[in-house]
Amino acid sequence: MNKSGKKDGLLIKLEELDRRYDAIEKDINDAAMAGLTGKLVALSKEQGKLKPIVGRYREFKQAEEELAKTNKLLGETRLEREIQDMALEEVRQLQERQSNLLDEIRDTLVMADDAAIDSVILEIRAGTGGDEASLFARDLYNMYVKYAEKRGWKVEQLDFSPTEMGGFREVIVNIKGPNVWSSLGYEGGGHRVQRVPVTESQGRIHTSAATVAVLPEPQELDIRINPADVVEHVSRSSGPGGQNVNKVSSAIRLEHIPTGITISMQDEKSQHRNRDKAWRILRSRIYEHHEREKRAQRDKQRKTMIGSGDRSERIRTYNFPQNRVTDHRINLSLYSLEKVIAGEMDELVSALQDYDKRQRLENL
Q: Is residue 3 part of a domain?
C-alpha cells in the first residue's frame, strides 16, 4: 500500500501474475489438454517463467498476514513489556523480509524474459582491417567459445568462412544453456581492436574491427512462419570438399519474401542438414526483426536495453598494448584484456547486467 491507501502498481501486477499462474495450472491439469502437446509445452514454458516471481510474491503475502497478526497483538492493551518487545522485533523482521522480497521480485520481473531464453545464434563478421580484421573475428569467436565452455553451455558451429591466414570472414554458432541470452545479449555491435598485426614489419599499431550479432533462437512454437512466404533454392555446393561437393545439389538458400531476409548454407555432405541450419538461422533473424519493430513502437523515447544493439554501433575496444578492454556503453575499462580474450568475461558481463537492471528498474 502507498501513503494514499491505494495498492502499489507492482502489487497489482503481481496479483495478476498470481491469478495467471493458477489459471495455467488448471489448464495443464485439464484432461482435455492431454492430446494438445504444443499447447501444453507453451503453457509449461509460461508457467516456468512465472514460477520464481509468483513463489516470492506468495512468500510476501504470507509475511503480510503474519505482520497483520503481530500488529493486532500489539494493539491489545496490558501486554507485558517482554512480549511487546518480542512483537516489535518480529514486526521489524517481517517488514525487512517484505522489503527484501519486493526487491528480489523487481529484479526477477525485469529480467525474466531474458532469463527464459536459453539458446542464441551468435554471428561474427570481419570488418575494416583486411587480414587483421579476420584474425580479430577469430579471436572474438575463441573468446565466446571459451566463455561458453566455462559456463557449461553447448556450442554448435553452424557456418564459417575461413581465410588463408586462419582468420574468419564470418562465423555463425549456436550457443545453448541456462541464462545464455541474459549473459551474451549485450555483445551485439561493433568491436574494435588496437594492436600490432602479425603482418606488420614496422611494429606500428593498427586499428581493425569486427561486428557481432546475437539473436535469440526461437522455438517453432515461438514464431510461426508461413512456408508459402519462403522460397527455397537448391544448388551444388562450391569450394573444397572432394568429389561429392560439385556432384550433389546440397547447398540451400532460403528467401523470406515479406522481410527480404535471405539465408545461404552449404555443407558438402548433407542437403538435409543445410536446410535445418538455414531454417534455424532464418527463424532467429525473422524473430529479431519483429522484436526490433515491437521495441521501436513501444519505446520511441527511451532505450530499455544497453545501447541500440545496432551492428554498426561501436560498443567495445580491445587495446592490446595497454592490456585494456573498454566498454563504451557503461564507460568501463578493465586492465585485464588477456584474461577477457581468454574467455574470463564474468566481470564485464556482470557490470553490463547490473547497469541494464538499474535502467529497467527505473523504467518499471
A: no
Structural contact between residues 53 and 14, judged by C-beta atoms closer than 8 angstroms: yes
DSSP label at residue 292? H
pTM for the whole thing? 0.69
Phi-psi region of 36 (alpha: psi -120 to 50; beta: other; left: phi over 0): beta
What tens digit of pLDDT does each residue of 40-55 get? 877 887 888 888 889 9
Distance CA 193, CA 209 (A): 6
Q: Are residues 83 and 97 in the same domain?
A: yes
145 and 104 within one domain: no
User: How big is the CA angle at 192 (ends 188 and 195), to the nearest 5 degrees?
Assistant: 150
Measure the CA–CA gap between 10 and 17, rounded to whole angstroms. Answer: 11
Domain count of the chain?
Answer: 3
**CA torsion angle 234 240 242 246 (round to 10):** 30
Find the domain containing 147 and state its range: 119-220+303-363
Confidence of residue 220 (pLDDT cuts 50, 70, 90): low
